[in-house]
Amino acid sequence: MDCKVGFIGFGLIAGSIAHALKESGNNYNIIATSRRLEPVYKAKEDGVVDDVLDCVDDRFANCDFIILCTPVITMNDYLKQLKDIVKSGCIITDVGSVKTSIHNTVKELDMENVFIGGPMAGSELTGYANSSSAIMKNARYVITPTSKTTNEQLERFKALVYDMKANPIVMDYTIHDKSVAAISHLPHLISTALVKLVSEQDDNDKHMQMLAAGSFRDMTRVAASSPEMWDQICASNSEDISVLLGDYIDILSEIKKNIDNKTPGYVNELFEMSREYKNSFRK
């Protein structure tokens, strides 16, 4: 059975999903448009996209799935355009890393019966040129249904995710946003803060930069991420990030106090606790 999938926006994640669907062995017909069409034409040359569209119009009407892969700030505008285009039975989804804003818009537009959130983890790399089906393989693909999502829609979406070779996880969107604030958004800010600290504290001969090795590079890998994307992410999930950032600052203040006081055993206990919890993570 053929399945038509439309992409609006075509960067790293869109390209990776399209690669994965085309490599699944099932019959996926893929159409795509984007602000910049060069990557979409390259994807067509690669056999990843079947048709390149220059805008969002009635040509998306026959899609079984439409995946929004644009910056968070523009997704709401595309939802408004799609409201009178999509056919009955189409599922609109997205790959934005923050869900509350888009779910609120979906409610306002009375589109809960056609929308299912689909946040997807990314990479510090960007663009179609860096896309690959390998990014999807065994990835945790969170699905955030609405109050009007049916079991049939949920199962169809899961089947799409399985064809990507990813692992679907169904989750309430508010829980998702708090969770990613802690395990993704905060780490990105901490990473950039550490880079800022070293850049300001390094001497003229750049000795810190010269000696930076494994631990620093591991801690700051995501500091190379897209500034535009992270500006929008932090703006759209500011409340959850702010609360957790305050809690993190409190923990750092406690660590500083105990370091200043040379509290016996404190650092040992801190590392024991963190090591035990870190080792409990699923691989």
Q: Which strand-content bin applies to the residues?
A: 5-15%
Mean pLDDT equals: 93
Task: List low-pLDDT spans.
Answer: none
**What is the CA-CA span between the terminal residues?**
35 Å
Number of strands: 7
Walkthrough of the structure:
The chain is 49% helix and 11% strand. By secondary structure, the chain is of the alpha/beta class. A five-stranded parallel beta sheet has the order 3-2-1-4-5, with helices on one face. Strands 6-7 form a two-stranded parallel sheet. Helix 3 links the parallel strand 4 and strand 5. Helix 6 packs across helix 10. The chain is elongated, with a radius of gyration of 21 Å. It starts with a strand and ends with a helix. The relative contact order is 0.11.
Explain the layout of strands and helices.
Blueprint: E1 3-8, H1 12-22, E2 28-33, H2 38-45, E3 51-52, E4 65-68, H3 72-82, E5 91-94, H4 100-108, E6 140-143, H5 151-163, E7 167-170, H6 173-201, H7 207-211, H8 214-220, H9 227-236, H10 238-260, H11 266-279
Helix pairs in contact: 6-10
Keywords for this entry:
283 residues, alpha/beta, 49% helix
Give a quick precis of the structure:
By secondary structure, the chain is an alpha/beta fold.
